[in-house]
Amino acid sequence: MLIFSGFPRFIVYLIFFLTLSGCQAPQSDPFDIAVHPWIGYQSLTLCQQNDKFVGKNINVVSTSSLSESAKLLKDGSVDAAALTLDEVLALREGGVALTIVLIFDSSVGADLILSRKSINSLQELAGKTIGMENSFHSRLLLSEALKRAGINQDQVYLEFSPVNHHEDAWNKGNLDALVTYLPLSEQILDETKTLFDSHEIPNTILDVLAVRTSSLNNHKDEIRYLIKQHFDVIERIDTNSQDVLYRLSQVLQMPVAEIRDVLYKLNIPGPLYNNRLLQPDSTSLNKTLTKLSGIMLSEGFLSKPVSREGLTNASFLP
Amino acid sequence: MLRLLRFYLLSFALFFAVSPAVASGYIEHTYKIGILAIQPKSNTAQRWSVLGDYLQKSIPRAEFVILPLDDVELEEAIQDHQLDFVLTNPEQYTRYQGLYGLSAPMATVLRGTMNHPLQAFGGTILTRAEMPINDLKDLKGRKIAVPFLAAFGAFKMQQYELFLKDLPLIQPMQVTETGLPHDNVIMAVLENRAEVGFVRAGTLERMVAQGKVERDRFKVINQQQLGEYPVMVSTHLYPEWPFAALSHIDQNIQGHVVAALLNMDKDGTDALPFNVLGFIPAVDYHSVETLMQDLRISPFDQVPRITIADIWNRYRAAIIIGFIATLLISLMGFYLFASRKKILNSQQQLKDILNSIDANVYVADMDSYQILFMNQHMIKEYGMDLRGERCWEKVREQSAPCEDCNNSLLFDPETGIPKGSDTWEAEFPNGRYYLMHTRAIRWHDGRLVRLQISTDITHIKTMEEELRQKQKMEALGVMAGGVAHNFNNCMAIILGNIELARLKQDEPEEWNKHLDSAEKALLRSRDLAHQVLTYSRARSNERKPICLSDFMKEVFALIKVVLPSEVLLLKQIEVDCGGSTILGDKSKIQEVLINLCNNAVQAMEGKGTLSIVLDKVNLIQHDIPSKYNCEPGIYARIRVSDTGCGIPDEVLDKIFDPFFTTKEVGQGTGLGLSTVQGTIIQHGGMIKVQSWPENGSTFDICFPLIQPVEERVEEIEECAFELQTDKRILFVDDDRALVQTGQLILTAGGYQVEYLTSPLKALEVFKEDPTRFDLLITDQVMPEMSGTQLIAELKKIRSDLSIMLYTGYITKVSDEIIEELGINAVCVKPIVAADMYKMVRELTRKS
After folding, report:
1. What pLDDT, in 10s, does the model give residues A173-210?
2. What is the pLDDT of residues A207-250, one digit of tens each?
3. Cis status, amide bond into B273, omega within 30 of 0
4. More exposed terminus of chain B, fewer Cβ within 10 Å: N or C?
5. Helix, strand, coil tally for chain B in percent (to 5)
């Protein structure tokens, strides 16, 4: 006598399916993420140091600069990288399918325009020589500042150098102003005054975690885990800042006081704010993208306005 | 009592308290600041007095009294609101805040130096440099020195590191409390009173600076990478001591105190003790609370009251999923239970069926020959369960795997796919016959195993033998007429020639001629009797190579004597069949042919032509009916044809069925052709029939050929006739005429013969002088004692006596008895004198 026929068989299949779906085969390729020494990204380095990624199939690849991280992501050596938003747009323009899954921080004063003390206002920058890194977010900062001062970009002279050469460039005496970001040496801080900083353009200069779109499905668990660990570190900055500051001082080889000063100039969004920013209809992010892409279009780095489609994904947030 | 004790304690503390403002003027209020004393109270009071002075100076008309208290006193004072402000370690603060409602931290202590101000502190885990302790894991079971178990920076922080790494916590039995200061811990480790020490970070560096210990005598475990933090730390950092107010202090005075604390010079001019630089705005103490919650430190050691609603609200999704999972698992469990019951029932049914089969069923591994399964029938027959034993050892009673093991034939060696059933018969060591079906099957673990079903067919074999004998008797009955006819003819010839010889006594030539004719008729009669006896004799199932041409000649001779005179026998052996050999049982094949010939004679109603032809035929698969297990190839064919009435088409398919007969009731068993077919199948051959009603039938019997066996031709030793007068023979036969004739013939041959008609008398004579005779010649069938019984008795007396059994009925004595009794020769009566002399000479020469 067959007591059960159809329904129990369905249950068997269901449990079998659920069991199988819970028993994913171990992934042989780790989730590689490139990180360069910017303070906003160091939550990942601290996690790596505290063995949080052991056995989790996540590998932090330390790079020396933003451009190196971008290169590794472009050539497929890593699955993800901590980048600035403008780099993400440039890579997407270059054909690298990327999705932003986390916003590490937004600059609220960490990017700034310094000038010699004899210059008292932005308007006085007309006809002056300005040193800067040839990056989109530096251009964005300058563009916003000049716009507010009513000066066209062709009214200033630009001299490009990497950010780690800014001190030397400044010491040569040719520069009247400098578009740069923290931390800076005491000497420069003593000799300059701040004309403009990113605090005046909130939610514009963003550091993000960009993942190759092709890796999203293969590394869902790793991405979720990694983002959760980032937020745990962020929480510890609030609840036990001294411990985190000293650990960052070890990683970045910087004094605790300087780290604290830089952190004051960064807005580190938590899960809720991240979720708001990463939604496709986020007004704030759309505004930033419009500004940023406008500059990049005018500079010829973008051929068309940025599409929001597939650019952000909030589903990995806790 | 407790209250009284507290009063005394507080009085004692006030005794040490320093109140610099007492003499300075008008005081509106005196505020007591309780400070956790980690040094002797007098020292603590004296050192912290600078804080009281400072606050007194900063807040007019207020007096601040410093009260150094140990942790118990401090808690009691807070509980009784005997204090106004508290400065204690973060863990104690968190505890008091939770229990007694302290204010939020008003300020946090800043220690260190101006170059390295420290808002946080940690704990250090250290051991002697030579100890094999390098990691937190190595702390398991170690003897640990701590200042006291309640120490935050010198015990609880370290415990929490173990907790965070899922390592076993330090048990109280591992701990040695050294008391304050922390220096005691380091000395305990150095002096080998403990293997590991927990101290507040910085203690070791301070003692090294003071020259109390050498740095390289110690190593720090689990050292954290904390950049510019000036001392070695093994734990996370936690905020420095907080300064807080009790709940009864109004916010106004709190504000004055906070302002004063934050405005305190941090350049050391105020000279606070214990490297305290001053105070900073209060930091977050959440990390301390988390530690206490995780370690279940009071007040977080109480399990909160949890309602069902709490659980539902918190774990709603998990509960729903769990419920569904439980439901599914329960349904599955029920389904599995029911399925299991069905399977068990089904298993029992199969077991019952297997056990009720009247056959031995077993399964054995093909490589190890280990028996994996036996049915009850087999267990009963063998008297035990042989599972685990090897089949060749226990079933076939062999000392090695059976030579005829067919395991390799049961599956395709290339694909491993089972081939099908292999069926054969065999006689087992227990003397019983079995019909065996074997096949390879896939066992539950995937391997191929041998399944054998052995049916005991001994009783069928016995019945077959009896039936065959009955068939033989029937055939003999049919033969009897022909035999009698031929025998009578011979008798007539003998009688006639003896009478003629008597008449021609005076003409020796004619006399001899008539005697020769009589002798020939006699020999013909003897051969006739011999043929019939040979046919009627039951034989074993022994199969031997048979040279068909020779065999057919014997068959022709036999058939010829039984055929009615009106039946013409045509015999033909094809030229290429000269050496054709098959493997078989002569007597059974003879029976087959006799059966077919008898049927033919009956079909011809005693008149017609019977043709027997031996030839070879090449059989292709198409020629072989499916019921025969023959392979295509060259076969020997014996074709038996008659010119009888033939077989009607409607019964042609049934003639080989058992008990099918067209004869009248009582005239036939219906088993003749069925037996014929069975015999042929046993020989690996086949039989086909063609019939033409009213014109006759043809039966073709095909046997597989084997390689001819070279027969050893024994050279007949021709010896010159030689008289042996010294040889004495005892001749015993109950037929007096026969024994006298024999005595005369042997005496004529030169032997000394004593004849007796009684075997008992012969036994007596022999006993008198056992060495008197060289040879015993005896009949078998005698009234007092059989020939074999006589031989047995004589052999007891003299085992080397030569014996010749001289009998007219050879079937009465089996080959086994002949061998057992040591009978040297067996002669079938009658025998001509020359043959008798040859045999006797041979036997007496041996003796």
Report:
1. 889 999 998 887 778 888 899 999 998 888 788 999 99
2. 999 999 999 998 999 999 999 999 999 999 888 888 999 999 99
3. no
4. N
5. 45, 20, 35
Which chain A residue lies closest to B236 (C-alpha atoms)?
A243
Contact: A256, B227; criterion CB under 8 Å: yes
Cβ <8 Å between B120 and A242: yes
The answer to whether the beta carbons of residues A64 and A36 sit under 8 Å apart is yes
Read off φ and ψ for residue B630, nearest 5 degrees: -110, 145
Closest CA to A10 of B487, B332, B258: B332
Task: Looking at the complex, report in whole angstroms how far the Cα of residue B122 sits from the nearest Cα belonging to chain A.
Answer: 9
Lowest mean pLDDT among A132-146, A170-184, B14-28, B321-335: B14-28
Tell me the pLDDT band of A268, cut-offs 50, 70 and 90. Answer: very high
- What is the model's pTM? 0.54
pLDDT of residue B838: 83
Q: Are strands B802-807 and B825-828 parallel, antiparallel or unpaired?
A: parallel
Distance from C-alpha of B715 to C-alpha of B601, rounded to nearest angstrom: 41
Task: Fill in the DSSP letter of residue A306.
Answer: P
- What does the pLDDT average to over A295-309? 80
Q: Band the pLDDT of B472: cuts 50, 70, 90.
A: low
Residues 70-129 of B with CB under 8 A from A: 119-120
Burial class (CB in 10 A: 0-12, 13-18, 19+), A168: exposed
> Which sign, positive or negative, has the C-alpha torsion B656, B662, B667, B669?
positive
Q: Residue A224 gets which letter from DSSP?
A: H
Cis geometry, peptide bond prior to residue B181 (ω within 30 degrees of 0): yes
Angle, CA of A31, A33 and A37, to the nearest 5°: 160
Give the DSSP letter string of A255-288.
-HHHHHHHHHTEE---HHHHHHHHSTT-HHHHHH
CB contacts, 8 Å: B237 with chain A: 240, 242-243, 246
Residue A84 CB contacts under 8 Å (≥ 6 apart), including other chains: A66, A135, A136, A137, A205, A206, A207, A208
Q: What is the pLDDT of residue B553?
A: 84
